[in-house]
Structures are given as C-alpha cells and as structure tokens.
Specification:
With 277 residues, the protein is α+β, with helices and mostly antiparallel strands. It is built from 7 helices and 6 strands.
Length: 277
C-alpha cells in the first residue's frame, strides 16, 4: 500500500470533521424541535395543576435554559464550520504549493529538450544504485551512448535538425529500456542508461529494441548513428570506475569504425559488443 501523504491525512481529518459537524447540527436541531413539541404538549396540562403558577414558572425556566443551551450549541457548530472552512482553504493552498514545488523539482531534474533525466539526477541515482548493488549483490549495468557525426547533422541541416535527432533518439531509447531503467541525457549528444537488476545477457535484448533510429528533415531521411559502451557493476565500483570502463568500450567501438564525415546513408544498429567491461 502506498504511504499516506500528510495532505491526504489532513483531508481525511477535515472529511471526518464535516461528518461530525453535520451529525451534531442535526442532533441539536432535532433536540430543539423535540423540546418545543414537549413544551407545546405539556402547556395545557399545567393549566389544570393545583399549583399552576409555580409549575408554569418552573417549566418556563427549564424550557428557556434548555432552549438557550440548544441555541448556544447551534452557534458553536456554526463557528466550528467556519474553522473547518478555513482549514480547508489552507489545505487547498498547501496542495497548490506542493504541486508547484513538484513541478519545479521536475524541471530541475529533467532535460528540457528530450524529457530525459539530466546529468545531476543521473549521478545521484547511479550512486544510489551502486550502493544498493553493493549491499544486495544484485546485478547492475550501465550503458553510454554517443551519437556519431552529430556535428555534421547540425552543419548540413541546421540545429533544428540536430534537436530533432536528439529527441527522436531519446524517444526510441525510452521505448527500448525497461520501466525500472533510468535513461539520462548527460549533455550534448551523450546519453547514459542505468539498468538496475540487469545481468549481462539482458543488455543485448535492450540494445536490439533500440534498432536504427532515423529522423526526416526536409524530405531527407537522416539515420541517427551511435556508438555504445557498457559496463557491469563490480565490487568496490564507484561512479567514476563504472563510467570509465563504459567509456573505454565506447571509444574502442568508435576507433574501430571507418573515419570520415557522415554520409547519412542508413546503417544497421551496432551489433552486440564482443568486449564487455
């Protein structure tokens, strides 16, 4: 069961207060009405009493005291309702403030162009996952992507085309990874994916789902070529050591490819890496 937030708990208290006020209000009204009916019923009988004057005075005093008590109770419930209304206003204001704070927090950890998490969030999350893997012994994998010939896309088609390529690659990346994985835009044309509970044999399956993304710019299909490096958590690993091993694999793959500017002819997705650090 999800934890109940303070706002939800406070809302339940106000709802309970509403029920109590309504029950008390109805009960006081019913008591006042019953008192009036009793007074109307008993008044004729008091006229034929041997001590009518004394009984009438006593009944009148009791009736006035009870009626005053009932009216006072109604006024108290009215004041209690006003307190409830003020509490509800404060709750609604607090909820709006919380939503605004959550929105600002979301903006602080998300990359505005791609919608992926940003580098700041990625470093914090990777540190948490490394600590968890160290304690639990569960597998943890890391993938780093670098778009090939990205500068040529910007130079030949403009920065808008480069932005489209980044967004399309991010979209494909989010579809390829699992729900528990954390895709991150490190900056520029570099991406990182944290894969908790992911053994070596599962990484290839995620890469195969990424395929060969491409973007259409001015009736020209531009393949989004990329290199990828990856590493698996080893005992005593840190953020720096995991990223360094993944970088080594990535740049080894880049060096193994033919040099030269991108022709933007379609190329297949990278095959599963033989080397794995």
């Amino acid at each position: 069961m999800p934890d109940i937030t303070p706002h939800e708990n406070f809302s339940k208290i106000i709802t309970q207060l509403d029920r109590d006020v309504k029950r008390g209000w109805r009960g006081t009204l019913a008591g006042t009405a019953m008192l009036l009916l009793v007074a109307m019923y008993c008044a004729p009988a008091l006229k034929f009493s041997t001590n009518t004057s004394a009984n009438m005075r006593l009944a009148g005093i009791l009736f006035l005291l009870t009626l005053a008590s009932s009216i006072y109770g109604l006024l108290q419930f009215h004041e209690l309702k006003k307190v409830r209304d003020r509490l509800n206003e404060q709750l609604q204001h607090s909820i709006k403030q919380r939503k605004r704070a959550e929105k600002l927090y979301g903006l602080s950890i998300l990359d505005p162009l791609t919608g992926l998490h940003n580098r700041r969030f990625g470093e914090e999350r990777l540190e948490e996952e490394i600590e968890r893997a160290e304690k639990s012994g569960d597998p943890l994998a890391l993938m780093i992507f670098d778009l090939d010939h990205f500068k040529e896309i910007n130079d030949q088609f403009g920065h808008a085309a480069g932005d489209s390529a980044l967004k399309e690659f991010s979209r494909r990346l989010k579809k390829a990874v699992r729900a528990c994985d954390v895709p991150i835009r490190i900056g520029g044309d570099e991406f990182l994916v944290i894969l908790p509970d992911c053994p070596r044999d599962k990484v290839n399956a995620i890469l195969s789902r990424l395929g060969a993304p491409e973007v259409l710019v001015d009736c020209t299909k531009i393949p989004i070529k990329y290199s990828v490096g990856r590493s698996q958590y080893q005992f005593t690993d840190t953020i720096e050591t995991m990223v360094k091993r993944a970088d080594e694999v990535l740049y080894s793959q880049k060096r193994a490819r033919p040099s030269g500017s991108g022709s933007f002819s379609k190329m297949p997705a990278p095959e599963p890496l033989a080397r794995y650090n």
